[in-house]
Amino acid sequence: MSNLEGIHGRRVLVTGANSGIGFITALELARSGGDVIMVCRDETRGHAALEMIRKHVPGAQIQLMLCDLSEQSSIREFSRHFYSNFGHLDVLVNNAGAYLAEFGVTTDGLERTFALNHMGYFLMTQALLQALRRGTDPRIINVSSEGHRLGRLDFDDLQWTRRRYRPVRAYCDSKLMNILFTRHLARRLQQENITVNALHPGTIRSGFAVSQPGAFGALVRLGHLFLSSPEKGARTSLFLASDPSVAETSGQYFVRCRAARPSGAARNEAHAERLWALSSALVRHPFDQ
After folding, report:
1. What are the tens digits of pLDDT across the range 197-210?
2. In the chain, where are the structural domains located?
C-alpha cells in the first residue's frame, strides 16, 4: 500500500489487531509513521503480531495493550492503563469482532456476540472519549459489514434469551448495531471536533469464523478460495483513518472508500436512540465524561 497521508506522528488505536484486517491496519499505519497501539485479547498472539510488524517496519512506533472487549471489567482496566500512559488519542479503530457459532454468556451476563461486537465498540469508545477530545482531527472508525442488511433488531430479545440462538442472524444484528451506534454517536458529537464513521471491509480472507464448527464454518473455509486479501479489506479503514477528504465527514457508512447508503433499518433514528439507551443501561459503572 502507498504511504497514508496525514498519519505520520498521529496516535492510532486498533482493536483486534493481531490478525486479519486489524493486523494489516496496524501494520500500514506503523509503516506510514503512525504511533500505533495494538489492542489484543490474547497475549501470545498479540506479541507475535507485534514482533511481525516490527520485523516488517524497523523502528516502528508501535506497542501492545491487552483487553478482552467482551468484558466490561477488562475495558475498565484497559482504560486505567491507557490514561496512566497517554494523554490523548487521534484515531480509534473499533475493529475487534467475531462470529460465534454457539450461544454463550459473559461474566457481565451478556450474550457473547452482543457483548463483543456491539458493547465492545460502545464501551471502548466511551472509555476513550476524553482522550479523543484532546486529539488532533480525532476520528472514530467502526468496522461493520454489509451483513447488517440481514439484521433485524428484536428489542424484546436483543440477546437471544427467549429465541433459539441463530449465530448468523446474531452476527448480522450486531453489525446493524454498529451502524446505528455510529449514526447516533455522530449526532451526539456534532458540536465537537470528533468524527465517527462506519464501514464494510469487503468479504475477505481472515480469521473470521474459520475455526467455527458446523456448516457456516465449513462454508467460510471453502469461501477463502474466492475472497479478497486482508490488505484489500483494510483499505477503507485506512482511508477513513488518514484521508483529509473525510476530515469533516461524520455519521456515514463507507464501502470501498466511498460513502454508501446503509439499509433502512440502519437509518432508523428511533431504533438508534433506543439501542443507545438500552446499551447505556447495561454499563455497570459509566465512564467519566
Report:
1. 999 997 654 444 44
2. 11-281
Active site residues: 171
Q: pLDDT at position 289, please?
A: 52
C-alpha span between 263 and 150 (Å, rounded): 9
CB-facing half-sphere around the CA of 74: CA atoms within 13 A: 18
- Cα 41 from chain centroid? 14
Distance CA 144, CA 151 (A): 12
SS3 169: helix
Does 171 or 288 have the greater pLDDT score?
171
pLDDT for 206 equals 47
Q: Are 20 and 40 in contact (CB under 8 A)?
A: no
Q: 80 exposed, middle or buried (CB, 10 Å; 0-12, 13-18, 19+)? A: exposed
SS3 171: helix
| Model confidence pLDDT, tens digit, residues 70-110 | 999 999 999 999 999 999 999 999 999 999 999 999 999 99
Burial of residue 76 (CB within 10 Å: 0-12, 13-18, 19+) is: middle
Strands (E), the chain: 11-15, 35-40, 62-66, 91-94, 139-143, 195-200, 253-255, 258-260
**Number of C-alpha atoms within 13 angstroms, CB side, residue 215?**
3
- Say yes or no to pLDDT of 288 above 90: no
Q: What CATH number has the domain spanning 11-281? A: 3.40.50.720
Q: Are 82 and 131 in contact (CB under 8 A)?
A: yes
